[in-house]
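Section handout 9: paired folding examples.
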Amino acid sequence: MRDHANRTYLFTPGNHPRRVEKALSLDADVVILDLEDAVAVAEKIATRDIVREILAKPRDVAVFVRVNAYDTTFCYGDICAVVGPDLDGIMLPKLESVEDLKSVEWLIANLERKHGMDVGAIDLLPIIETAKGAANIRDMVQAGSRVKRFAFGAGDYTRDLGMDWSMGESELLPIRSEMVLASRLGGLEPPIDTVFIHIKEHEAFATSCETPRALGFQGKLCIHPDQIGPANAAFTPTKDSVAWSEKIVAAFDEAEKAGVASIQVDGYFVDYPIVEIARRTVALANTLKSLGKL
């Protein structure tokens, strides 16, 4: 599996090779070839062949495939069709239970063995999109699976709950907070935030990135090329924040050697919780630098 950052995941329909080609040339951290909502029912099975051809071509970016949901007649065939050495990850929509998660993981593991791959080589990114999924997320994050991070999908979530999905998205605060809390509870990476469907509302999209970033999300699902730049920027630490974090870490390390665990840096109080946040910022910056993203 290719190393990649997790700031931006760009969807593109799996049955449109030209749009896929363009998506692969952009600056998204991950490109998601869609077999689910972006593909008409009549074309779903035929699109598997198109996706396999795309996966076999050389590329520099990580590619995931969003298969159809577990309870559909397409999920099993989708997974069997796309798992192989050329695939970086599977996005699993509408995950609702530990049992479904374990079933999908069993299938992927056996397909990895069939293809001579290491078990666990393929990433699995589930999306929480229903009330049942949200209610069971704390169990799912502690299920001991290959899942490194979860994603949130507001479209189906608000539909399932009969909620109005407003441009300001204040109604999403409870589930976004739960996603972050559950991910931390399970020792997983921070989650990936939902798509934003108002493509021309650039200021609102910036808020739709900044709000989850402040809550603890690490990235954003994107549905249009114009969203990649702002989302990358929102989830990338600034030069000033990296420099400040490095200064805090260095000062605290020196103090700790002398047996001191609370200091002031330029009038700013620093103890273990504060320095841990700074270390995370430095670690993220170093990861992005290693990937040529910063």
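Moving on to protein 2 of 2.
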Amino acid sequence: MTTYHFLQLYWWAIVSLLGALLVFLLFVQGGQTLLYGTAKNEKQRNILLTIFGHKWEITYTTLITFGGAAFASFPLFYSTSFGGAYWLWIFILLAFVVQAFSYEFRNKEHNLLGKRTYDALLMINGWLGTILLGVAVGSFFTGGNFNIDKMNITIQSSNVISYWTNDWKGLELILNPINILLGVTVLFAARTLGLLYTINQCRRMGDDEAMQLAERAHVQLKVSALAFVVLFVIFVYDLFMMTGLKVNVASAVNVAGAQPGASGAITPEVHAYLHNMLQVPWILILLILGVVMVLAGLAGALFCNKGRCALCKKCGINPDSQCPFNKHAFYVVGFGVVLAVWAILLSAGFNDTAYYPSLYDPQHSLTLYNSSSSRYTLEVMAYVSLAVPFVVWYIAYVWNKMNVKKGDKTDY
């Protein structure tokens, strides 16, 4: 493996991790879907908006960071997806923009739109934003209608390298069943995490309205968690059965200075993503570990409370104390979601796989070899990425400081 290819793999891992963290942080959007149906009055809606209003900026910042990292490390993907499928991305960005000013203006005096309008916009962000993001991520596997011609850069009158080959400009991705399946899966993942976070924070607040909201969220968690698990299993099965596109490294032209695979033919491979998991076993381990953590956290949230389940009795937990499986369910499930989604995204680009297939011509598909920045750019960015642990520490510190504490008043 060349140093250049290692850097390409490294940055695909970073971009994939940011995508996985974004899916976890969509619990804010999932919480916003609870404004009507779970919350029964204005007091409970204010409690929900206080809980999630302290966290929405982190989700939005992660979305921007994901786009920025993709632009810096794989600019051809950025220009192809964000520039070609722009109607899909415009709707995603609009869904997130309305969230920002809804939190800002919902409780302003004499606002022209009224609380109900801003609540509706937050619901749109919660339902539509998560589904459309899932659709966009699904295109990593199902592909898009685009054409790549790097020679266009030499033509002054037509220097566009990549362009979409139909007039739908990304809207056709919404019609793909696999994309929709992943979109709905992301929605229920976000909603499940939102319910878990609501239960966690309402119990910390401790007043009667908050406890009633927590009890109702616990009831709805059963349906949402079951839907999430079933949809995820169906998606993973479809993914493993899918035919992917692989770079035939052996057929690459051996030119002096060229990296392996840079000009290799791209050919279809049945069960490509299943083979990726089996041939790169640590990715499969990440997936399995993530699934186990999700199931363990959900089991703790649903069945393990104050020593009433067999597991608590076996562990000898004091019946008067809250079971740790129940108390920390949000974080256990959340970390499991990050690992599982990270593994799935890694499998899209690792093992010489085309992570953005072209439906126009498979040879125009995007791979780590043909779509990344230069070696120098990736090297400089790799040094900058060494600061990531400090950023993570700061986010964790701010997260803890912004958590709702017992007795906090609602402020939205």
